[in-house]
Amino acid sequence: MKAKASDWYKKDWTLDIKNMSWVENTSNEVDYLIDLCNLNGTERILDLACGYGRHALEFAKRGYEVVGVDITEIYIEDAKKSAKEMGLTNVSFICNDIREVKFCDEFDIVLNLADGAIGYLENEEENQKIFDIISRALKDGGQHVCDLVCGDYACAHFPVKLWEVGEYAVSLSEFEWNPDTRIMMFGNQDFTYGETMTKPEIVEGDPTRVYTLAEIKEIMEERDMVVLEAFAGYTNIPASQHEFQMLVHSKKKHL
Q1: What is the rounded CA–CA span in Å between residue 145 and residue 225?
Q2: What is the DSSP string of the chain?
Q3: Which of 6, 41, 152, 249 could lock onto 241 through a cystine, CB 3.0 to 4.6 A?
Q4: Cα separation of 239 and 248, whole Å?
């Protein structure tokens, strides 16, 4: 699989993503996050790399004040349109590189879901900046949740191909791995039900820096944050090398 250009994360995003199988669980994911963080509805939430706003809109429907940020203009336009159609005045969307936002001690919760752009950037120095933004945006005692590919799983199992079956399509994901750089190459192809299926051919992949749980703990500690717990995605199963997803729940220390 050939790596896309280092600025791949700025390009090629479409609203076809709405039809992917993994977006179907948005409401259940929000239920999980509310329970995990023990939220009461008064919290102010920052959703970084929010995409077309599926989580931000769901939180706003439930009364939370939410700000969503994403670099992709069509996503932000669609999110704003959806908010207007739903009559939601407690959510706003900003089209910007998340490294450029200037929030400071403003949010009770910061989210980086479905990767939330963590590991997407041009090099390790740039990727670390996302964690700086997270820590700076949180109030003391504020909480952060990120949902990532587990680096421990990658080390143990990549390369691998995985299928996921949804209500409207089946998705093939292919993962390659460089253990020295900890860069994952990710390629995906979707097959909509009712359409003629052709032989899968994934020729390009998204180069993404993948982190182990130990690395995440160290990164958070350097920013006056502490990892509280880590699960295999939206479950109660502990994160490990045996589980593909890693959902990490952290808290900013009281200084």
Answers
A1: 12
A2: -EEPPTTGGGS---GGGGGSGGGGGHHHHHHHHHHHTT--S--EEEEET-TT-HHHHHHHHTT-EEEEEES-HHHHHHHHHHHHHTT--SEEEEES-GGG----S-EEEEEE-TTTTTT-SSSHHHHHHHHHHHHHHEEEEEEEEEEEE-HHHHHHH-SEEEEEE-SSEEEEEEEEEETTTTEEEEEEEEEETTSPP------EEEEEE---HHHHHHHHHHTTEEEEEEESSSSSSBP-TT-SEEEEEEEEPP-
A3: 152
A4: 9
pLDDT category, 86, cuts 50, 70, 90? Answer: very high
Gap between the Cα atoms of 119 and 185, Å rounded? 11
Which one is predicted more confidently, 146 or 204? 146
- What pLDDT was estimated at residue 200? 83
Confidence tier at 22 by pLDDT (50, 70, 90): confident
Please state, in angstroms and rounded to a whole number, the distance separating the CA atoms of residues 20 and 22. 6
